[in-house]
């Protein structure tokens, strides 16, 4: 099995030199050179991924959820045979894959593992995702990106962005949700999450009934209100989210009475009043 490691120089709050040092053992374990740390833009990193994907059996992505998402979307529709070394902030996929231990332990698990096939969500037929949402999450991640550009640390930027969103930067509005043949209205939306796997960032299990690879997209809609928000947060960090409306299906369409920002895998997507989501079963192969 021929591996190649591609690393995002900007993810995880480490310098490129620090990442190279942390990846040195994983590189030896997988007998894989490290690429990408000399790239200076998302476009260069994507081009590097496309070239590497043609020359290796498994492309190992070292970065956060956003980096994994960028590589998936850069390579698709070519063969998606990937592995994942988590370096980011949210790390939803680290938890979904039940990774334990440090980078070296995960590299050994990749080397000794086997291919697994997983679903992705096609957002507006523009971008593949494993973690999408609209509502306060979109407003928060948009603000978080601005604070990060100003030089704040990831956690401080998230605290400032989420506080500002809660205090009025995001104002709940009415949305209409169609999942296959089911119609649902949420009068004051706090958050609507669309995922093929159970986890959100920071270890929040927002869709506890989801199994990555079950061929369905899972939707959780949480109305606005302090009590239900507190219940959602408390249970997502413990037993799995018990708040809101939980549904699953193959396709979902969201219509909002005002423009919303789409959050895609930890990054801001686009702004619209209508969003469509469709599950693409078993399109992603992951070695672990």
Number of strands: 14
CATH fold name of the largest domain, please? Tumour Suppressor Smad4
Order of helices and strands: EHEHEHEHHEEEHHEEEEHEEE
Instruction: Find the structural class using helix and strand composition.
Output: alpha+beta
How would you describe the overall organization of this protein?
By secondary structure, the protein is of the alpha+beta class. It folds into 2 domains: 111 residues, Probable inorganic polyphosphate/atp-NAD kinase, domain 1 (Rossmann fold, 3-Layer(aba) Sandwich); 156 residues, Tumour Suppressor Smad4, CATH 2.60.200. It has 8 helices and 14 strands. Strands 1, 2, 3, 4, 5, 6, 7, 8, 9, 10, 11, 12, 13 and 14 form a 14-stranded mixed beta sheet that branches. Helix 1 runs parallel beside helix 5, helix 2 packs across helix 3 and helix 6 packs across helix 7.
